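agent> fetching stored inputs for the zinc ion docking request
agent> found them:
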Amino acid sequence: MTFMSQPASLDGTLKYPCGDAPPTGAVRLVAPGVWWLRMPLPMAGLAHINVWALEDHDGLTLVDTGMHTPAAMEGWQRALGGPLAARPVRRVICTHMHPDHVGLAGWLSQLHDCRLWMTRLEYVVCRMLVADTGRTAPADALRFYRSAGWDVEALEQYRARFGAFGRAVHPLPDSYRRVVDGETLAVGNRIWRAVIGQGHSPEHLCLHCPEDGLFISGDQVLPRITSNVSVFPTEPEADPLREWLASLARVASQVSDEVLVLPSHNEPFRGLHARLQALAAGHEARLAAVYAALATPRRAVDLFEVIFRRPIGPEMLLMATGESIAHLNCLVGRGHATRSLASDGVLWYRR
Ligand SMILES: [Zn+2]
Ligand SMILES: [Zn+2]
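agent> prediction call returned; pasting C-alpha cells
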C-alpha cells in the first residue's frame, strides 16, 4: 500500500524515458526482455500497480501481481493470452506482502503450477494477516487506535472492516522459495541482486541488475508519491521510520544513480539518488514539524495537519494514524519526545 502524504515533487530532476503506461492487458518493452504491465486497483487515489514480466530461459518470471480482483485477473488473462502468449509463466516473485503486490500470487502460481519467490518475513506476515480474516477485531488493536485518539465512531468502523486484508489476497501457496538479502537470481541471461529494505513492509525485496542498469524498486522508491511508513497494532512501539530512513541510505549506497528505476506505482524514471534524498529530506522536515508541534502535548490524531497539510477523511484514517505514530515513535527513539498514557487510555506526546 502506498499513501500520498506529501508528494515531494522533483519535476525537472527526474526523467521519465518510457512514455505513457500500457493499458490494462497490454505490455510495453522497457528494456530487452523486460515488459511493463499495469493492473487496475480499486482504491481512491491509487489507481494502478505496475507489474513486470521478465524473459526467462523457457518462459517468464513475473514480478508482482496486482490485487485479488476480477479486473486484475482479466488483465493477466488478456496479457498472458495475448502479447505474452508464447511464453509460459515459470515463476512468480513478489516484492512484498501488500495486497496490491501479492494479491494474485497464489492464483498465478496455482494456474501456472510454478513457485512463488519472496523474502521470509513478507511470506510469513502475509499469511498471518490473511488468517485474521473471519476473526473479530482484537482488543489490542482497539486499545491501540483508542490510544491514538480515535473516537467511538472510528473504532466501530475499524471493527466492521476488520479482516479486509484477506479478502484482497488470493490464498498463498502453502510453500514458497525464500529470497535473502544480497542473493543473486538468474532470470534468463540476466543476473539480479536482491536488495532488502524495511519500514514500508518488514522485508521488502528490490531487484538490482548493475550490468544492465535496471532497478525494480517495488514500493521502496516511488517517483511521484511517498510510500506509507506506519506503526500497526501488533507492534505499538515499533520504529519503522528509523528503518525506512536507513533503507533509503542503504539503497543509495548499493545502487548506482545511473539505473532505470522500475517502480510499482507511477512511471519508470531516472534520477534515483535525487529521489532518495528528497524522500529522506521530506521525512526529516516532517519530524522537525512534529517536534515543533510537541511544544504542547498532542495525541497522534492531532498531528495530521502538521504531517499531511490536508484534512484526513475516514478512508485515510488508518494509514494516516499509522504514519503519525511512526513519526512520533521515531522522535521518541531519538530521545526528542516522550509519551505518557492518560487514565482514559489515550497516549499523549510531548517534547
Ligand atoms: Zn506496499
Ligand atoms: Zn504498492
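agent> quick read of the result: The chain has a mean pLDDT of 95.
agent> awaiting further instructions
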